[in-house]
Amino acid sequence: MRATRRTRLLVTALAGIALFTSMTACSRADGGDQGAPPGQDQGPAAELRLGFFPNVTHAPALIGVHNGFFAKELGSTKLTTQTFNAGPDEINALFGESLDIGFIGSGPAINGFTKSNGEAVRLVAGAVSGGAQLVVRPDITSPQQLVGRTIASPQLGNTQDVALKKWLAGQHLTVGDGPDQVHVTNLDNPKTLDAFRNGEVDGGWLPEPWASRLVLDAGASVLVDEASLWPEGRFPTTVVIVRTKFLQEHPQTVRDFLKGELAAIEWAKANPAEARTAVNEALSQLAGSTLSDPVLERAFAGVTLTPDPLAGQFPQLAEDSVTAGVVTSKADLHGFVNLGPLNEALAANGQPAVDAAGLDTK
Predict the structure, then answer these.
(1) Which of 142, 200, 148 has the alpha carbon at shortest distance from 178?
(2) Domain that holds residue 106
(3) What is the pTM of this model?
(4) What is the torsion angle, in degrees rounded to the nearest 10, for the CA atoms of residue 352, residue 255, residue 91 and residue 307?
(5) Which residues neighbour 69 within 8 Å (Cβ) at sequence distance 6 or greater?
(6) 269-293: per-residue pLDDT in tens?
(7) Does residue 13 fall inside a structural domain?
(8) pLDDT band, very low/low/confident/very high, at 36 (cuts 50, 70, 90)
């Protein structure tokens, strides 16, 4: 009996040692302090998984990856990337913890925060303002002529989908399949171009470069430039969000990543021609095709690269989601914004801090 008991004690002890070894190995693999509890600073991450879209409206991401700005600032942290067509899919990847940081539209960013009861994600920076238009067939010259027509947006509930439906509501037009309604369909951006050429859709509320592609490559006309709907033409088309747990456990990695974004933006502003080339080369690698120079120039002319997320616009964006019928009640966005890492990176560059518009507190 005693021998059996000693054997059981030995097995238990060995199991405990194995468990401890496994836990410390996982901690080291994550690049953090051994034994640091979840949700606390664990130092630099071993890997950062980044999501973004192959769009001009995600230029800081494309340039940051293609020109190595992120990799340089991240040092030993491995950068892996994944591309998406629209925000809802990227939000699902963040929820599933297969992504850590994402460049994303403002609408899905808000929805990700609210659907997780304010827990899953935080807004940590801006990326691009502007760069979205409603482009249509040339014979459509007024909102009322959209009745009975089919208009595309990239995905149900994405940033352009919300903007389109909110604008239609403001024009006293309803969305549906009836003859006196506007038909809204959700298509991947490349499919929208093909569908427009084939006569299957009559236009789309699209981000760049797809708005420019429909105009210059397929003969569309601009019915609405979204910039005309916002004060001073500024609205957050693309922002940067991070999984809350990743931000808590690896704040230095997030700050270093944002230093890379700042470097990409500053380089692009100082070298506009080279920035367009870098974006085109990145799009070629990701999508297998390049954009013509006129499309690139038109697309870049409509966007502003900025680390400021324009947080003051987000309450209106949350209200727009209600108007568009995407959600039933306006989201409370307090606690959504955490600009601490960004403002630290800006201060290190001698640049002024950006404002969280009161959304950094509960």
Answers:
(1) 148
(2) 47-130+234-348
(3) 0.85
(4) 20
(5) 63, 260, 261, 263, 264, 267
(6) 999 999 999 999 999 999 888 999 9
(7) no
(8) low
